[in-house]
Amino acid sequence: MSTPETSKKVPQFSALKLSPVPPKDDCCCEGACETQTEMLPESGNRYSWVVNGMDCAACARKVENAVMQVPGVSHVQVLFATEKLLVSAESDVSKQVEAAVSKAGYTRPELGAGAD
Predict the structure, then answer these.
(1) What was the pLDDT predicted at 35?
(2) What SS3 class is residue 88?
(3) Is 109 exposed, middle or buried (0-12, 13-18, 19+ CB in 10 A)?
(4) Which of 15, 46, 75, 76 has the fewest CB atoms within 10 Å, i.e. the most exposed one?
(5) What pLDDT does 54 receive?
(6) Strand runs (DSSP E) across 1-116, as ranges?
(7) Beta-carbon contacts of residue 73 (< 8 Å; ≥ 6 apart)
(8) Residue among 110, 60, 67 at smallest CA distance from 84
(9) Alpha carbon separation from 50 to 40, 73, 91 (Å, rounded)
(10) Any residues with CB less than 8 A from the CB of 56 and at least 6 apart, and which?
(11) pLDDT one digit per residue (tens) for the chain, 116 residues
(12) What pLDDT score does 63 carry?
């Protein structure tokens, strides 16, 4: 079966020229496009842990909420892509934070497994 001859011109893709989209100066979302990064406070003690099992933002939020319940914790940041937990506190709360993370259902890597 052959296609009938038509008088339509077939587009030539070799003549197509692509150009990059010019950057926009304004955003329609009032800063929603910007990456939100919070820095840990300068005062107090800072702690960092690797937490196994965080696969998504919901996991990270669960760990954050659990650690924020620990008395003395002033700031919590979880980076689920790297499975890192960053905590700022006025006193040594490492044992309480580890217990809260464990109670939330997450674990730390074994010491011989290359933990931070």
Answers:
(1) 42
(2) strand
(3) middle
(4) 15
(5) 83
(6) 45-50, 73-79, 84-89
(7) 67, 87, 88, 89, 93, 97
(8) 60
(9) 17, 18, 20
(10) 80
(11) 566 666 677 665 565 566 666 665 555 555 544 444 555 556 678 889 899 888 888 888 999 999 999 999 999 999 878 889 999 998 888 899 999 999 999 888 764 444 34
(12) 92
Task: Give the pair of three-digit tokens for residue 60.
Answer: 């990270």
User: Tokens 């690797």 identify what position?
Assistant: 50
Task: Tell me how far apart the alpha carbons of residues 48 and 83 are, in angstroms, rounded to a whole number.
Answer: 11
Instruction: Set out the domains of the chain in order of their start, with CATH numbers.
Output: 40-108 (3.30.70.100)
Type of residue at 88: S
- Are the beta carbons of 105 and 71 closer than 8 angstroms? no
Whole-prediction pTM:
0.58
